[in-house]
Amino acid sequence: MTSIILIIINLIVSYRGFKESAFYNAYEFEVEKVLVYKDYKRIVTSGFLHINWMHLGFNMLSLYLFSSSIESYIGIGGFLLIYFVSLTGGNLLALLVHRNDGDYSSVGASGAVCGIIFASIALFPDMSVGFFLLPISFPGWLYGILFVIFSIYGIKSKKYNIGHEAHLGGALVGMLVALIFEPAALVHNFWTILIILVPILLFIFIIMKKPHLLLINNFFFNQHKDHYSIDHKYNENRHLRQKEIDRILDKISKSGLGSLSAKERKQLDEYSRKIR
Fold first, then answer.
1. What is the pLDDT of residues 18-50, one digit of tens each?
2. What is the DSSP string of 164-192?
3. Are 255 and 248 in contact (CB under 8 A)?
4. For the chain, does the N or the C end have fewer beta carbons within 10 angstroms?
5. CA torsion, points 47, 51, 53, 59, in degrees to nearest 10?
6. What is the dihedral of CA 6, 7, 10, 16, to 10 degrees?
7. pLDDT tens-place string over residues 45-56
8. Phi, psi of 133, deg, nearest 5
9. What separation, in Å, do the N-terminal and C-terminal C-alpha atoms of the chain show?
10. Separation CA 259–CA 263 (nearest Å)
11. Residues 6+ apart with CB under 8 A from 131
12. CA distance 119 to 112
């Protein structure tokens, strides 16, 4: 039942995003908006937006198929905790990977859905994972291993314009939270969990310590020296704001305070509050 409510919310929010670009732009995940403008709500709100009906449908069908076992096993509260913590964790990993790429943006519930999927794998590794409309299925543990390998490759190659970082981050967080709820699963399914967790943790270590091995742009390493990074954008915006304030102050010195327009007065007032 809880998954149905989440699916309905995703449908409503995504549909509005399809129809209204301003709404979509206001709530999508974008590195610059989060880091420079401190619009942290986007880390969560972006998880209810989708690119198109296919993107939305795939995520919602996956959520529906994997949610019942988790919800019945750990309850509604645990299910919701895994969903939202995985959503947040997935976007935080994307923020880490693309910290130096201010234009990077993404939407989708994939991080949350992957958290639910991998929580299921941690607790029920022998579950069968099938492919839609195809008579093929894999053991849950094998699906987890293949998924991790594909996500790491996707981050490195930047192919298909898919947010693999959110997938990987959500999967990691979902599995860890599930183990907090059911620590005994770590003993019963130790090798399965270890084989899945180690590559994820190793990959995050590489991002922080040896990012040149991945050839990606982030806070620790910039592959493209001419890339217009988020730091450059921030410094340029700051420089432009200061230049405008200097112009206003110069205008006051020449023509008096009464010569300012309403917009200029507002800019000066905002600047004064910041430096107090």
1. 999 999 999 999 998 999 889 999 999 999 999
2. HHHHHHHHHHHHHHHHHH-THHHHHTHHH
3. no
4. C
5. -40
6. -130
7. 999 999 889 889
8. 65, 5
9. 51
10. 12
11. 137
12. 11
**Cα 159 from Cα 164, distance rounded (Å):** 10
CA distances from residue 18 to 24, 30, 55, 186 in whole angstroms, order as listed: 7, 17, 12, 42
In this structure, which amino acid lies at residue 235?
A: N
CA triple 144-149-153, angle to 5 deg: 145
What sign does the dihedral 84-87-90-93 (CA atoms) show? Answer: negative
- pTM here is 0.73
Tokens 């995504």 locate to: 14
Give me 171's structure tokens: 């999967």
Q: Which residue type occupies 259? A: S
Distance of alpha carbon 137 from the chain centroid: 28
Tokens of 82: 């895994």
Residue 20 in 3-state DSSP?
coil
What's the CA dihedral at 265, 267, 272, 273 to 10 degrees?
110
